[in-house]
Amino acid sequence: MQQAQDFVAECDALATVLQDLPEADWDRATQFKGWTINDVVVHLHFWNRAADMSLTDPERFQVALARTMQGMQSGMRAFENNEIVARGHALFADWQALYRDMGVRWAGLDPKTRVKWAGPDMSVRSSITARQMETWAHGQEVYDLLGLERADTERIRNVVVLGVNTFGWLHRVHGLEIPAQVPVLRLTAPSGAVWEYGEDAENVIEGAATEFAQVVTQTRNIADTSLTVTGPVAQAWMDKAQCFAGPPETPPAKGARHVATG
Predict the structure, then answer these.
(1) How many domains in the chain?
(2) Sheet with 183-188, side-by-side order of all strands
(3) pTM above 0.90, yes or no
(4) Together in a domain, 57 and 111
(5) If phi over 0 gives left and psi between -120 and 50 gives alpha, with beta otherwise, what is residue 199?
(6) Per-residue pLDDT reduced to its tens digit, 117-141
(7) Residue 248 falls within a domain, yes or no?
(8) What is the pLDDT of residues 21-69, one digit of tens each?
């Protein structure tokens, strides 16, 4: 399953940035809700562990999920940080050991195998793609904080596809009527190839695949990208785009998230 290999590659790219980070920097606040780098990696490790448990021990996962949903009522950050106590490079080692182990085991799975999750059941291909998306999205706040431009590869396509596939869900979660067709997307991949999706030629989104992925993961405001958006359906989508689960989230304000300078 290629998506499992892409997940590991995404984690390894972030690990390269984190592996030599001084311990004191792990408590620096990012532009994302004030999360620290410790918060970011705790979050990624917590949900990687949950995804893996849904595969290896479904009954235990159901018990753990019920406890998690109850515990998070008092705040996700506090609950996750209470569940995972390692910090800094000790946390890094735990996170890396698990994601590499998952990559080996998940790569051999039938992509259509079903697993439980917080919402509806999903395929293991969807589950591991969601883990890559989360790693890529939350990794962005680390890159931004450290003033680093990320060099994306073709595996960003998994995040793009997730963004396209959640078009209908986005409208449902906002209580809106789902448009009959998905706007046409013409996105330039890191390799220079053009990826095309959608059917509604009166609503078109064109530009870099990375920037589309940034918008649907809410790591950038649409106004902070060079994407060209034509048509009311396309504009409305980009104004509230969200490819991750949960209730509707407000995208960052214009200029709120960027690569730090100085």
Answers:
(1) 2
(2) 194-197, 183-188, 200-208, 228-230
(3) yes
(4) yes
(5) alpha
(6) 987 899 999 999 999 999 999 999 9
(7) no
(8) 999 999 999 999 999 999 999 999 999 999 999 999 999 999 999 999 9
Q: Which residue has the tokens 């290896």?
A: 56
Q: What is the pLDDT of residues 62-118, one digit of tens each?
A: 999 999 999 988 888 999 999 999 999 999 999 999 999 999 999 999 999 999 998
Alpha-carbon distance of 74 to 11, in angstroms, equals 29
Question: Token match 């697993």: residue?
Answer: 115
Q: Is the CB of residue 132 less than 8 Å from the CB of residue 163?
A: no
